[in-house]
Design goal:
The chain has 227 residues and is α/β, with parallel strands linked by helices. It contains 10 helices and 5 strands; from the N terminus they run E-H-E-H-E-H-E-H-E-H-H-H-H-H-H. The protein has a 5-stranded parallel sheet with strand order 2-1-3-4-5, sandwiched between helices. Helix 2 runs parallel beside helix 3, helix 6 crosses helix 10 and helix 9 crosses helix 10. It is globular.
């Protein structure tokens, strides 16, 4: 049973999501929050496995709430799936950097939302090869983007790990990485886990951010890095 917390400042949206999630026999809605502060508090008290988090909320927005959840050792197992109105929302990158495991637009089909909850709850990241990578590249290439781990961070990685990281940044799952590099899915998964440990990344979403900020993968139009 996946314990889901819904965080959105719109009552009708929460009600709709609650009905949808509650219709799945493998999921349970354990709480609803109208603000970011409520989301953080309920994540602790309701023992949620996953928070479906709206970005724009009063008191504390979804990004701030995600950051607090990710930084709380007692909530280490709690995953965050952020929601946004548009897939071009620059705040998505901030949410991923804060610790979210993926994002969805609010007009996502009901079945896709349930599938996304299962994916993120299972420890995977919800990152599509196209829109997510393009969005992250665009935002991180902007002058206001904060400095990332830098090229030196890649020195901790082996040549194979750099190749794997570049493919993760393009949205490939373990099977896709394995097929691209001629590896077994288990070996690909092992490489991803080791990279996460070396870069102290919370999940694959954080690896995507690291790949772009370090320069291993450059913004769309500039090609891909790595040697």
């Amino acid at each position: 049973m996946i314990r889901v917390l819904l965080a959105d400042d719109q009552t009708l949206v929460r009600a709709a999501f609650a009905m949808l999630v509650g219709s799945d026999p493998e999921m349970e809605v354990v709480g609803e929050a109208a603000t970011g502060l409520e989301a953080v508090a309920l994540a602790r008290s309701a023992r949620a496995d996953l928070v479906v988090m709206d970005i724009r909320m009063p008191e504390l927005d979804g990004i701030g709430a995600t950051r607090l959840i990710a930084a709380d050792e007692d909530l280490a197992g709690v995953k965050v799936l952020v929601l946004t109105t548009y897939d071009t929302d620059d705040h998505i990158v901030e949410a991923l950097r804060a610790g979210a495991s993926g994002f969805l637009v609010k007009d996502t089909r009901p079945a896709d939302l349930l599938a996304a909850i299962r994916t993120v709850a299972a420890g995977e990241s919800l990152l599509s090869p196209g829109p997510t990578a393009r969005l992250i590249a665009r935002v991180l290439s902007a002058p206001r983007a904060p400095a990332g781990p830098g090229p030196g961070a890649l020195g901790m990685l082996s040549e194979r790990e750099r190749q794997v990281l570049a493919l993760v940044a393009r949205g490939l799952n373990n099977t896709g990485i394995a097929e691209s590099l001629g590896l077994s899915p288990l070996t690909a998964k092992t490489h991803v886990s080791r990279i996460m440990g070396k870069l102290r990344a919370r999940d694959r979403a954080q690896l995507v951010i690291a790949a772009y900020e370090s320069g291993l993968v450059v913004p769309v139009g500039g090609g891909a890095g790595g040697s």
